[in-house]
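Now read this:
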Amino acid sequence: MAGHGIYDKIYNRIPLGAQNILMSCYAGMLYRQRYGKQYQAYLAYLKGKDYGDLDKELQYQNDEFLRFLKFAVENSPFYKEFYRDLDLREIRSLADITKLRVLEKETFRRNLDRIYTIISPSAGIKGFTGGTTGKSLMVLYTREDSQKRLAYLSFFEFRNGVRQGMRRASFNGRQFIASGSKHKVFWRHNILRKQKLYSTFQMTNENLPYYVADLNRFKPQVVNGFVSAIYDLARYINEHDIPLAFKPVAVFTTSETLLPFHRSDIERAFQCPVRNQYSSGEGAPFITECPEGNLHYNLDTGIIESCPDGQILVTGFHTHGTPLVRYAIGDSVTFAFDKAPCRCGCCHPLVESVEGRQVDYLVSRKKRKISLSHLADVIKGMPNCISNMQFIQDTIDAVTVKMVVDAQKYKPEFEDSLIAEMRYRFGDDLLLTIEKVDEIPREASGKYRLVINNVKE
């Protein structure tokens, strides 16, 4: 229910009860698309699988790699040309993967139209990257891959105690509260799935009591969403010593790096474990946390290679619509190969830490933090036309947005959309400056910063 078109204007004008019904109908439509036969079959397969045999898992990964590479080369015009100087018969096993060229992010962005194996966007499932590196990317999933990825996430939750039909409180970047709304109701109810969607755009200290009170009424059994949003809520609960009338089986965080102090405060507030997971909008392999509190690199979802600089290359087995082969995603993973096998029974390699999605933020006039995930969502829906982006805030009332755009793909109306998205987050009185530049300088570390906050709180 995001955006600023005619449907959103109608949605914003109807009563709250009708909005809940409309939200549920929309969710029902998505449910049929996301949780079909492939989802059900793959979830059943995962639940019945033996994860204790490492040799078997490595053989599966090897076989999937060879099948996936063959598919990519035969069906993607880009990969046919990308590997034209290589005799693919030399790739006999996963050990030969280093013979394949690395796919840099900018090469991926510039060639997406030729990487796609799906003829038109309408024939696939659209996915947008969060844009936390400043790049706008739209990938296409096959229906089967989309449902398999969702099944893997459901299996991750299942292993950590989630069962079908549990009440769920979700905190993400969806826009479903009208800007300037006078109602102190910052959530909508997806009745069909027993889910409440809590807006993360109105989470100010003034409004947090309303969130806590509604959570106590709803009594969710599962909480999931942005690290920054759940952490702000947990910190408020802890600082005010507010008793909760519920205890979730777990809190599932995503989209931003979960740091130790986030985990500590969230677990203290909700009196349950936090379970973290890593993937990407492009379709990177999963890293999921088990019931023992350890992160596992899930071999059956793809390949993660470590580079000398600490960053990783990813090959995703569930990306047949937009194949990822040795993709330099820009994140870093530290493996824990010296640790003893996990007591959870899963043989997949252990991961010490995942870095790359830091919780940076800007500040609105009402002192509300506009997190990295919210800013990343600003450039969603601008398919593949932004090669780099940066948000700079020098005063509470002014934000400068610098963009390096692809002149052939960028359209003037995208600027109107960008302005509307920023004003939704900061307010109508925001002084917004948009600068199209040829280049955005790197930091001394060699990395780009999407967010620069020079405002002292």
Q: What stands out?
A: The radius of gyration is 22 Å. The first helix runs from residue 6 to 13. The chain has a mean pLDDT of 87. The CA atoms of residues 277 and 288 lie 4 Å apart.
